[in-house]
Structure formats: C-alpha cells, structure tokens
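Please check this one:

***
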Amino acid sequence: MRENYEAIILEDHAFSEQHNVEYALWQLHYRRIEELRAHYSAAVSSAGSNTSQATKVPLRSDRVTKIRQQFKTFLSEATGFYHELILKIRAKYGLPLGNFSEDSENRIIMDKDGKKSSEVKKGLVSCHRCLIYLGDLARYKGLYGEGDSKSREYAAASSYYLQAASLWPSSGNPHHQLAILASYSSDELVAVYRYFRSLAVDSPFSTARDNLIVAFEK
C-alpha cells in the first residue's frame, strides 16, 4: 500500500491532492505508531502490576524492552522512507539537493517561468509535509527515548519543523508542532507564542486554537 501511495504522489499530483494521498500515506505509519504505543503502555502497566511477583518482573521488563526496540526500529525505518521520498520529490520537480534554505528555494521560484514556478511550488509543499512527518517521527523517538537520546531527538524534531516553516511560511502546522515540543519542557511562553504563530498565518492550524485556550486556562 505504501508503494502504491508513493507512486501516485510522484506520478499524478492532481489526483494525489484531490484525494489527500500524502496524508493517507502518513496515516499508514501513524496507525502502526498508535498500535506500538498501545502495546508499550500495556506492557509497562502489566510490569507495574506484577512488581510483587518477583518471578514475573524480569519477564515483563524484557517485554517492555522488546516493544520499545520494535518501536524505535519502526520509527527509524519510517524516517528513512520519508528522507528517500523527499529526494524523489526533489528529483521530480528539479529542486536542488542539500539542506533546505528559504532564500535559495525562493530564488529557484523567481528564476523560472510562470509554469515552472508553479511546478516547483508543488514540490516545495510536498517536501514541507514530509518535513512535518519527519519531525513527528523524531518527536516520537524522543518520547520513548532516554537521557541524551531524548534531547537529541527533540532537537532533530525542532529542526525538521523549522525547515518546514521556512519552506511554506503561510502554513500554521509546523508552529503548532513546535508548540507541542515546548510543552514537553514546560516552556509555556514559547508554547503560547507558537500557538499564536500557528493561527496568525494564511493557512492556520485550527487545532492550535483549542490548545491555546487550554494553555491559558493552565
């Protein structure tokens, strides 16, 4: 199914946009993420309920470790997939390789004729979405990581979201995700700022309004 969705995204942009294929592709991954999170939570809960039974504790701990490793492996594989997809999208729309830069991407659009500029913008929007998904994958890695691993993954997630924001400044989605990251470290000022940024754009992220209300209630 993933290969089919990828083929549609790369071969028929109009159909892909009409049927939200990029989002459907992400949902394939997200459903698996939710399954693994549920298994992990159940294993942790089960381990806690059996602490008085000494013979069962090692078994439960092993299960928690195994599921966490499966989760990390899946997230890493999905991250690799989206990195590859970005490369394919860049190749299709003639975008340069290397780190995304707002200035260089804008020059590409300005230097081309109108039709080509429109095609390039399509590629940039698709890359923007992929960067959001990469940020989410890194964020989940951080949530289930430990120590330095956790902070590294959150830093990576922040980098992906910021790149997404620079590629499509009118989208509120990356700012909303950055607000979520800020809430993990209880940085309420940054969270509120990002929620506002998420709404004060041409394409606001509507969920930010509800989260902003919750933030003020706190």
